[in-house]
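In this section we walk through a basic example: taking a raw amino acid sequence and producing a predicted 3D structure, encoded as discrete structure tokens. The instruction is simple. Fold the sequence below.
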Amino acid sequence: MSNLLEFYGAECPHCISMHALVERLEKEEGIKVDSIEVWHNKKNEERLLQLDKDMCGGVPFFYNTKTKKFICGDDSYENLKKWAKGEPFTQ
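The resulting token sequence is shown next.
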């Protein structure tokens, strides 16, 4: 399992647009992000709630288990890449 987690809802338009950036990141940088659907999976939703702790309150929610940094909602490709690499980024 990767230390990079992407929590999403299957029909969420913001999640769909961010997932395209995740796919680009994986392809261009060789970085693995675990995608976890929460709207149709109660166990995954519980995991999201444990990690989120009211930081975002929804999806998409990106969490780096090594750095404890997170991204809420839509963001830029550059910030996503910095988040994944553990580099400072604008939150």
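Looking at the output, two observations stand out. The chain has a mean pLDDT of 96. The radius of gyration is 12 Å. In the next section we compare this with other chains.
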